[in-house]
Amino acid sequence: TIFRKIRFILGAIKREGFVSVAIRVLQKIQNRKQKRAVDVKKKIKITSLARADDVLNAQWATRPYIPSKTRHDAPYVINWVMSPPGSGGGHQNMLRFIQYLEKQGHTCRIYLYSTFDFPTVAEIKSRLRKSNPGLNASVEWYEGQKFKESDAIFATGWETAYAVLNDKGAAKKFYFVQDFEPYFYSVGTDYVLAENTYKFNFHAITAGKWLAGKLSKEYGMTCDSYDFGADTSMYKYQNSGKRKEIFFYARPVTTRRGFELGILALQLFHEQMPEYTITLAGWDVSDYAIPFPYKNLKTLSLEELSDVYNECAAGLVISLTNMSLMPLELLAAGTIPVVTDGLNNRVVSNNKFIKYAPASPDALATALVEVVTTPDLPVYAKKASMSVGDASWDEAKDKFVSILENRLNG
User: How far apart are CA 334 and CA 353, in angstroms?
Assistant: First the structure.
């Protein structure tokens, strides 16, 4: 067989020339290499928001965390572990409290935690200078190193709680909980990993009373809560005339905001009230087949929202987990929020100008129609704005500091 191959190659060289045969041989070798590369299947990397080594080391079920009874005297040093801050309300809320702690004379440090988003510290500091110009907190990436010594350390999202649990320092451990995060997932590994963090025996400070009640009742957590506020220096009532738009926070990538449900409700509303412009903001929805005319504002800065709200008679807010910050912000601008009904929302705010409706397209559409057909709607909108005139964040900030002091001094 070898001799036959040699004779074949020599004959080919004689007929076609050495260069031509050499090219054909190289092509065959290359084709075989490419075929081999295709045949080798790439392994699927197992990924999660939490680092695998942090989860493995967090042996909470067999080695539970027991809070230290050591007293800590003010001023405090407080470590915060968070995902890289963006423009979302969750981070803005955290930074609001961090800045207030700094104004009270305490020192805060920010540790960035992520398994998929890796902006540089310089990029994060640049973002923070724009959104929170008075912030003094240091910023560094957490990469498995020990946290610097502090009086308190805060987990701020379920994935960060594993790193906080593993910390061997003397800091008391807290959990800044803004939503019931297992609901972000189908029942599976991430659901369980998120749910387990409520069993770490951290002290929770929650956004609103619904979360505090749920976590204490279902997981035995010790919890305190603060009430929502509205930044009335940012969200203002400026349009006392007739408003001909409807606002919807349209964010299809955030499941709990019920994008599809909202679109169905707005389709029914448009059929009844086609003279109203439907304004969508929160995401670029131009690739979606939306069954009515709409204004696509894509993503906006927080500073741009008040002007948008002031063009709108009503705002559709679908909150399927914890209450959104948006209803009170809409009210401050004189926009009547239509919100999905449920204890998760009513326990947080029962403001009489929030129009609650069952989470069905027809009920939400009917509620929107009822809002825009309210007699003397501009007068009603002004009263709605006045209802949150004293709902600043000052009370929440004071309560937050009081909770922290009581836990650290006790």
Answer: 10
